[in-house]
Protein: SAP domain-containing protein
Organism: Coniophora puteana
Amino acid sequence: MWFPRASISKHAAQKKHIANVQNHQLQLREQARKRAAESSYSQQQHDRQSHYEDDIDWYDEYDQRAGPTYDYGAHDNTGQSKAWYDADGEEVFFTAGDESFNALEASLARALKDASNAAVEHFQGHEIPLHDDTEDFNLGYRQEYDNPPIEDVFKAHADRTAATQQGHTGQWAPYPDKATFLTDLLFRSPRLRFSRAQQKAILQWARHLGATVPSHWGVSKAHEEVKEEVGISTQRQESAQGHVWYLNKIGDSIAKDISNPITRPEMVFYPEYANEKMSQVWHGEKMLRDVPDHLLTPMVRVGSGRIFYVNELVSLTNNGWFIPTRWFMQKGKSGSESRMYAMGHDVVKAQDGTLIQMDDLVTVPVDTFTATYPELLRDKFSGRCPLAETCKFRDKMPHPLREKAVNRPVYSIPVIVFLDDVSGNQSKQWNKHFSCYLSNGALPREKLSEEFHVRFVATSPHAAPLEIMEGVRSSIAETYRDPIKAYDCQSKEEVLIQVYPLLFAGDNPMQAELCSCSGLNSNYFCRTCKCGGTQEFKRTDAGYASLFESGSLRSSWDTYEELCKQYAVAYESGASTKLAESSRASGVKDPIAQPILDSMIKIGQEIRKNNPHRVAKATPEEVQALLDAELRKARSRGSVINPLLQMDDYGVDINKDTPTEILHTILLGVVKYFWAQTTTLLEKDKKLAIFESRLRSVEESGLNIPKLSAEYMCQYKGGLIGKHFKSLSQVMAFAVHDLVPQDVLNSWIIIGRLVVLLWHTEIENIDNYTDELNSTIDDFLLLTAKCSPAIIISKPKFHFLIHLAFYIRRFGPALLFSTERYESYNAVFRAASIHSNHQAPSRDIAWCFASMDTVKHIATGGWWKSKARGGKWVQASPRILEFISQYSEFAELLGLSTQEPIVPGSINNSHVYSPEQRKEEPDSEPSYKEPNQSRKAPDPVEWTATIAHAHLAQPPANAIYHAKDFATKAQDVVKVGGHVIARHEGGIYSPLTIGRVVEILGPTSSWTQSPHGVKVTVQLFDFAEQPHPILHMPVVLKSDSFSVLNASDILAAVNLQHDCHAGNCQPGEARHTTQEREVTSRTRMYVRHTDHSRYIVNMHAIHNHRILKDAIPPSLKPSRLVDSATESDIKVTAATHIRGKRQKQQEKAKEVLINNVIDRTTTSSADMPEDKALAAVENNDNLIKITEGLVMPSEAAVDNDEGSNIAYEQQQTSSNQPSEPQCTQARNPKTLPRHEFAFDHDESSQTGNGNKAWESAPNDVLKHWCRLNKVPLTGKKSDIVERLRAHFERTSLPPPSFNDLVIAKKVVQTQRLEKALVKTQLGDDQKRKRAAEEAEEPEDSSRAAKWPRTDV
């Protein structure tokens, strides 16, 4: 018996502990002797049986051999298990070891079947009873004594090592028992992390309830052994800059996928030509055309196992010859099964009998191959290559991997690499880590979006992104030098795998750094093309128009050459200035090369200086020699140029392999900008409350979006995230249709179209799709130029939209390179970081993810090569696979989807009563039923009491009842009153229509979830002849026609919005709000609809858009909102407006600064008249240049993707006052019509919340305002803001407008340079006079009061 430490003294506890340990060791020896005697007999019986006989029941075999101490499967006929007892004979309340043997679940049936039929061994043998205190693994110690005696630790380690060398062979192998498996599974779950203290507390809690669980030390040691056997290798990396970090080998991660029964069946190893369709990465042009031949899968297996390799001669069925260079699949025109093809060169026989390769590339079906190259050498060519000496493939035969693979398949797998900065803290304190994840590009899009398939690679708070990429490159290259051995769980054989990078995902700043681009704030901001120029050039007509088009594409080689030129410049005199000019002119700045260049420039400057200790000045040859030595020194430490620019051998052109990412560019980019500008307009016009009511009243059914929270979005409009903008883009046009100018409304209509196009999961015709996408982007950019011209220059994301069509053709639908799944996975990373001691973050987090992947691989049926089993490929015992399939809670912890698929046409919820029947009382208690109890069958209804009886001549044969909802063919759950797309007449060839579900009837004979016999009564809608005049979407009208359809004829749910424009609907319906699940007295305003017969089809809905598009008549398809004939005029007008605004800002800034200087100079010197001071200021060119450079803000300010004060930021980018366009730069000057720019409003007229931007002004501006209003200016910024706010409320004065803030900022900047400016303006006489006065004055504070100290 064990005593708690708190119940006895320390000395008594120690003595009792030693005595118990000694007794326990005696019991161990005695029971070990008994087990040895029993095992000899069991081994003899075991040797007579074969492990590979299919007719042996695995569990029956275990029951026959189980020891007498514990009948694991003991169950009586009543289904009640036998009781468990502890060492004192007392009954245990529950145990982790008593588990019933249920049937295998369907979710892992394939894995279990493979486990029973495979020719590779499972772990088999005896299990050590969970309740047995003689468990060697945890020494039987209670958690109160977490640190056992050191001699027992060594003994247990020796026993455990011997057991590990033989391999755990229990029912829960590779774990010693069920308790250890469940504990390890719980503690290594990605989404449920525990600290060490919490883990120990959980184990203590289980023990106090009577469960027999291992100690924390025992679980940790068991996991380390399993990880050593199964896990991913973690490698130490050291960069050229001296940073140390750790990386999980990419090859090991991908090998887990091909060895796992969940991922392997979905993997595709060859590119596929799908005609005009595109839905996966292997449909993209990069895999089909641009990836080098040597990177793709080099072999293909045909027929009975014959393996053909690329670059080898093969014979064809027509007695011809052929040399394949790459393999690809091609689908038939009718979408039939894909057929394997080879692209390569025909081979013909010359007159001298040698074979000559033709230059043209042709495609040949692989099923026409008849003999491999080794077979040809053996059977036809007597071991001598028949190709001519001039053939370039002669030296490549046989393929190098043929000998290395030894008749094993070799697969090349693409990977998607993601890199981003993420905080490792739970608090708001920023703890920056650069983290790298990857996805298996051989998986389909549906699998890529799941968290289960995201793999961690590396992280570091010290190493820069390109340093991490150096390690990623090395890990990828290692798979080609020495291919990774893996077990193909589908074909039941060992294979070799290689890995190559497909694309690099990330946000725009990160992708710019990976491309060695100088950043979004530079003149040449685009990483994909060479678009850009100086700010002056962008304000010209030609420069502004160039932002609407793609420039010449960049390439890795061009960037590499530019960096080589920068290294050459570093050798020259004046290299610092020349290097800065070179970077500005090219837009290339490499984070790896820049520190080396700076060091070389500094050394060159020091050498070229006149040194009094040097006898002679250094010659150019000496300077070059020293700089050469510095460069060689840097090169010896590692790469001196971005490693991604030197990966052309691995198919990487980094400027083309960093696709425009839709989360940060669309949702957190252009949609966020328009949201900020639109809400600013609404606040200015005092229409935000109306907008909130409309947003609250939007119909959400059929959108498949989170619940819209209008209050939150309007209150925290500056802090919304991606999911909010994704929802807003689908409904915004309906909420602002008459609240904003028409250009703004048209912009939201185009945004809705753009989001729908970019969130396509499948593209039917890539040519038509890209044409529509390009025209939509063109319209959006033109409308943006009409609303806010300057934002095209200041926000590079608008230009990035132009390259979307190029990247979609290259990689497939935009969702494939979206970063939403990786941004979500940051939560898993953050949890791993929080539960570490932060002493070795890169190593500890890498180990943590390796541990999670190990447990995930074991629990889902993955295979691994067991060292303890003599190098055989094994997987976990069927008990583990069965457990995961039966208990969805543990499957969810691993990131697996456990949601049951919806059966189309089935009734998913319980029935509802017909109107005549009594409804359930609202205060009645709900009845909770056990999952295994069947629900009560619904009461049938009379056929004559249904709506369907009037529209269906023949009644159903069975009794029917009213159902609440049903599932459509697209698996949408539709309730009565929902709108659907249906086949009007029934059948697959019936035309599509839109209607409203008015009744759902189900047969009482199969009312649970059967799709048979379900009838749906639909009220049909008619399409109006013309689209909506304002929103440009189809309009449907409710008709008097009804149709009773089978549930299988209902295709999908559709979102219809009420036509409030035609009905002139206004907010007027007050509804009580619900708080804490209680109806309160507070009310919210909703829109009161005046008519329920006219609806607008929401073409901005992402959900079911493909089906909706097929249901719309061709005459109602959307058209362009901008006339292409006015495109050039819009661009010229916008550029002219920008120049006019710029000119007015300069003139106003000069006027403010000159007046301020005159005031200072005239008050400082009474001898200098005002007109003379004014003339001195106006005639000083140097002062004017200083003024222009001082007060004009940069127009290239770039927003932060993570979000900032967007409203204030948009105010800074907008104009102070609308100015008359001045077409000074037009090539053909003509009179342009005056255009009102919707977002180019005067901020000085803003009121309400929009005028609170002054609170975010800098401290010096706020203090200046305090001086003007005679308010104390001491204390913190928050104190100053509170005093100013109280002053404005007390005096009823309006707070400073945006114009006032701009002027105040200019005045403050003027004061900072006051001393230098005054010295510039005062004449020599005034200077001498001031010097004389200063010499006579005593050193006190009077001068400081007269001439305040300023920072120059």
Q: What stands out?
A: The radius of gyration is 38 Å. The mean pLDDT is 78.
